[in-house]
Queue: 3 jobs
Job 1
Amino acid sequence: MQYKSTRNKNNIKTSRKALLQGIAEDGGLFVPEEFPDFSKKLKELLPLSYQDLAFEILKVFFADFEEDALKASIQQAYDEKFHRKEIAPLVKKKNLFFLELFHGPTLAFKDMALSILPFLLQLALKKEEKIEELVILTATSGDTGKAALEGFSNRENIKIIVFYPINGVSPIQKRQMITHEGENVLVVGIEGNFDDAQRGLKSLFNDPLLKEELSHNDLSLSSANSINIGRLIPQIVYYFHGYFSMVQRGEISLGEKINVVVPTGNFGNILAAYYSKKMGLPINKLICASNDNNVLSDFFKEGVYDRKRDFKTTNSPSMDILVSSNLERLLFHISGEEDHTVDALMEDLNTKEKYEINASMKEGLEDFWGGYAKEEEVLEGISKVYKASSYLMDTHTSVAYCVYEKYKEKTGDSTKSLIVSTASPYKFAKSVGNALDLKTDSLDDFHVIENLSSMAKLEIPLSIKELKEKQVLHKKVCKKESMETVVKNFLGV
Ligand SMILES: *Cc1c(COP(=O)(O)O)cnc(C)c1O
């Protein structure tokens, strides 16, 4: 399988190159040249373990790796560092289905792809004629940073730099990052929001001078953000797995359609669901759930993407995003792969902070339904579900739950639906505690976690317990204009 750029479809790369580059030279994102049809293979794939299923899917998208090496990478990526044998368990509570994607080492769904991405990049590096050192640049709204650090620290030929918004992440998220050990690691707070960090990084990626300077020092840049296909493709696996789990439990029959509900920020997770649908997984609607930063929900209603609005810091910080990078990929697909159209829309977004898609593209949005939940609704959702079924949702999962309720009410659709559960409630302990009327004001997050744990009888993962004692190693904070300097200083160029 080869990959092409959304802004120039004649710019075609092997999966190896696309992985290593992260983003195309023309500023576009890489997308698969075509989508394999798995609709006839569902029965055969149904009984497979998570790892075997991952292999069947990844070997098609990363065909330039040797199959044995790929298989070994999958085994090492999805091993005991996941707290559950099932990797991505399906949990049924009353008539809700949750696909829990937070049992990896950093307790959020970013682990699902970031535990394998380092292996894919190392396989790709090995095949290069000249081994350069890879510098992974990452902007995070809270969860990607830690998951990338976990995956990439102390790996040969790799350095990793993470930028997080100083006031835009939860205390636990921040602590996970600033205590992270590793020789090859830099964690920096930026005075700005996630969009500032992401924009800053994109401009570094697209700076030919920097690229040349780094290249003289045998360094090259790549990304651990979901603009990298190595993030996107492994996420397809859990949609198939979640669907098959519903079939195996007798909740649906093979071939029956389901909806998926995805709490969305950078549009990476839900795009993987869309790709699964394109590959023949029986999906009816893709329900895109946003928080108060509701650009996407407006987009799906009107076909207008308008980022000219206040950036809001909410209780679901990992979704506090106004520029959802991966939407560019959807635009490419629904335009019938018209790269010049995508290019023009992205230009509009840059210059006018807004774009509108044409009528035929709007038809392509029919697979989706967009909605959003306000902060208060998110807290009510947590409380309501807990009271009904003793199930503890984190704030992001609650966004999905709330939007799903709205969807059902608006459409009357009773298709069984899979709610994607993206983080452990302990990562956002205060908000979850407040939702449940625990008195949290005078307590630190660790205390709130203990109270939540004894109330809900839900075990506290070891990684959280250890966090309390860890030393702060990364105190650096910079202005958004200084990201390049910080990167260069760290690399010594
Ligand atoms: C990153 C993240 C999201 C949003 O996922 P996207 O792929 O950016 O849309 C949702 N919930 C949690 C907990 C996250 O970390």
Job 2
Amino acid sequence: MLKLIIFQLTLYLSHTYTTAQPKFISRVCQDTFGNYTANSPFKKNLDTLLSTIVSNTNIDYGFYNFSVGTNLDIVNGIGLCSPELPVHDCRSCLSNAARAIVHSCPNQKDAIGWYDSCMIRYSNRYIFHKLEFGPWYKVHYPILRSIDKGLYNKTASTLLTKLQARAAFGNSLRKFAADKANVTSDFTVYAIVQCTPDLESFDCYSCLGHAIATYYQQEGQQARLFFTSCNIRLFHDYMLYDLSSLNSLLPQTQGKASKKWRVFVEILLPIIASLLILAAIFGCYFSRKRSKLKNRIKHM
Ligand SMILES: *[C@@H]1O[C@H](CO)[C@@H](O)[C@H](O)[C@H]1NC(C)=O
Ligand SMILES: *[C@@H]1O[C@H](CO)[C@@H](O)[C@H](O)[C@H]1NC(C)=O
Ligand SMILES: *[C@@H]1O[C@H](CO)[C@@H](O)[C@H](O)[C@H]1NC(C)=O
Ligand SMILES: *[C@@H]1O[C@H](CO)[C@@H](O)[C@H](O)[C@H]1NC(C)=O
């Protein structure tokens, strides 16, 4: 119990004081896409790429996407910060992440690493504008007081579903959404969901859907789910970012065109998705029926 409290406190503190050295949460070094050696052109390109990301001072929307090199030695890289992170903290998070990833993955041509508030990845493959669920990683922090699990789950799921649509509705620089909801009068859940903004809306929507479904498998906990193309973070009780200033970063939703688009994303998209699932189920059912029929005909 004491351990848990300390853990929560550490989590709290590391968010309150962004200057504190944050922890490298996890990383995946992928062998299957090839290895490089210490003095190779690939390694040189990788170093250039990482320093390009870390030293860039033009980008203020927390998403860095660069390539260095050509053909066999190309390195594509993405850096993504949590939307609440100020530019300066974002760069310092990415800088730590860049150092950690070359240290942890000394010769893999494909790797991804997560801090609590930023992600860095690189690959010799083309990784831009592409929906990728994995590698992924999740962290759960238990709720420290008793709460109606069903009510909690209902509140969190309503909140997440709303944010999923909002984030997908973002633009090519920012695809995220953040909000809070009351579970009870004295218990509030906060959530931030985010996609790499180079994704299509539909891909962002489906990545978050996947992350949310994964979250549901473990009921009633605050959590971080880091997927390759998107992530969700749930916090309880404490406010670690200013919702209104966070939301002011998002594209404004005035104007008829964007209203229509919003209707599409928030209402039609879920309907289309459910219809596709239904169609798939029916498809399976009928093709099974047909093959049963065929079998029966064969046996006659
Ligand atoms: C990369 O090296 C690892 C061992 O360090 C090996 O298991 C893996 O098969 C190699 N991958 C390729 C594509 O050569
Ligand atoms: C990098 O990201 C920006 C913003 O989303 C986008 O406009 C641009 O096309 C991306 N570049 C590449 C190489 O994908
Ligand atoms: C949540 O509860 C607080 C305190 O009871 C209240 O002030 C606030 O309006 C509630 N928020 C929502 C979104 O219901
Ligand atoms: C939480 O709610 C979601 C959505 O209503 C549901 O799919 C999920 O099974 C629930 N999780 C648990 C553990 O009850």
Job 3
Amino acid sequence: MGEKVLVRKAETSAPIWQRVLLVLCISSMMMFSLFLVFDIESAIKWTGLSNLSETTVQYPVPGSHKSRIHAPILKDDESCLSRTQHLLYRRDSKVLPPSPALDEAWKRYRELHRSCSHGKNWTDHFLNGGQKTDPCNYLIFVEGGAGLGNKILALVSAFTYAFVTDRVLLIDSRKNLPSMLCEPFPGSSWILPDSFPYDQIESSPSLGAAIDKKFENFDVVNIHLEHIQGWGDQQFFCDDRHYSLMKVRWVAWTSTQYYATSMLALPSFWHRLDSLFPSKTDIFPRLARLIILPANHIWARVLRVYWGYLSCSGSRVGIQIRLHGRWDLAAFDAPVSARIRDCLTSHNLLPTTAVEENATQLSGLYSKHYHSEQDGKAVDIAVLIASLQIKYFEEMKELHSRYPSVDGRLVRVHMVSHGGREENTLEQAESALAEMWLLSFSDHLATSAYSTFGYVAQGLGGLRPYILNIRGENISNDGLPSCHIGQSIEPCTHFPQSPICEGSKPTPEHQAWLDKHMQPCQDQQSGLQLIYSDPAETLPT
Ligand SMILES: *[C@@H]1O[C@H](CO)[C@@H](O)[C@H](O)[C@H]1NC(C)=O
Ligand SMILES: *[C@@H]1O[C@H](CO)[C@@H](O)[C@H](O)[C@H]1NC(C)=O
Ligand SMILES: *[C@@H]1O[C@H](CO)[C@@H](O)[C@H](O)[C@H]1NC(C)=O
Ligand SMILES: *[C@@H]1O[C@H](CO)[C@@H](O)[C@H](O)[C@H]1NC(C)=O
């Protein structure tokens, strides 16, 4: 039932989108800067950008498309084009409603970051800085070894924590993320120097050790929020521990997981997050769009693929294919391919194909697409596939070029990279980041169950995905439907922790909110996910 409602809603919103496309396609890059004025998301006013004056960056309030293209032209932040440009590539409905409280907090946080970083040599400050007189606290994000999806979930969680507790977020310079992402806090850098004594961070006491010693004289605590946690680290998910942690100047954060969900269960965080996020069930999209901004060289790739392969289409469909629960995560598996196709055609995201050619349709193609090219629809559907395995792409491309679709719709299929297997190289991570962003611009997104890559794409896009049931060694007999519509735009917290806590418990009001908005994940029953109270009502897919 819910799915039908959603599909219909998506269709009714098409005319606006077509108008946007119409303008985008006929105007080309020449008018590119004009479209910056679409950039209205959540009233985020980038007041701190180093090269932009307060007065130039006035984002127009949401209004009709027409009023927005006539608004004053805005200037890009050339050190980070994605910061101002990413919203140009989204539908109106994917622009999040403003949150003045979040804007204000973000502005304040940037100011905190700048003033606490000013003039500091981090190595020196950590080793022997004026610890007693320094009013600032810090959170060091130590980049772990997992795939990019996990890293991004962990970084957004660390930022959620830092943001809510007024800690200056600093990141590990030794790995890939610093070169892939823009500096999110204009006017100060979040990158630690290479000379930073990481070994001292890694050998610093754990949360459990600090608790045992009642936090006396603990200047650094090293928290590990990985999928398996001991008693000590689990205590992070007890509210009272945070009053003690507030006194610890340096917190190091190593994780592979998304934990913003769990933070909402803590009374002190709930109150703070409650005031910042109008719905609280869009923490990831809002925060990830602030800090997971691709650096210019990756953004350039996003733009080239977008304009080269995805634009000028009636709708954009993203498909992210990653197998789980089997030996080769990048395998080509015919039943998986069939299931993906079944999901897409049964939800009308892709047309089914016919065997016989239809001469009437063929003879009409010229006039249909010649004219509609100017309406922004050279093809009906542009598909982007993200997978380590190229054969899923080849099959789909072959199918749609060899056979007609029953309704005559034209399908274009593209793929950015096909690594063959997961390697944590910089090159693969850069392609993956470009793909996550491109998928986030989809009108419809199909993701693989249990995939953190998929969570990041859906989260950046504010999209409820079609979750593909392609997990497990042999899906032939699992009795599952090919896919189901996701209940949320938020990532699933795969391993929520439930320690025994002393001290404060949620109030009845808080508990009622949790009961309504925190649900087991559809693709991991033991996981937890933030959802809207009535998904079918609030979110078009
Ligand atoms: C600001 O602009 C100037 C000149 O356009 C440039 O040299 C400088 O690097 C820019 N600063 C930042 C932080 O992008
Ligand atoms: C920062 O401080 C460390 C330790 O005192 C020193 O070795 C390093 O040269 C300093 N870095 C800069 C850029 O001044
Ligand atoms: C061929 O396409 C036209 C126009 O879409 C349609 O009206 C007609 O029924 C189709 N013919 C066959 C045999 O499917
Ligand atoms: C998968 O399961 C089906 C039905 O149980 C079986 O026929 C098939 O051989 C299995 N495939 C593989 C690759 O194990």
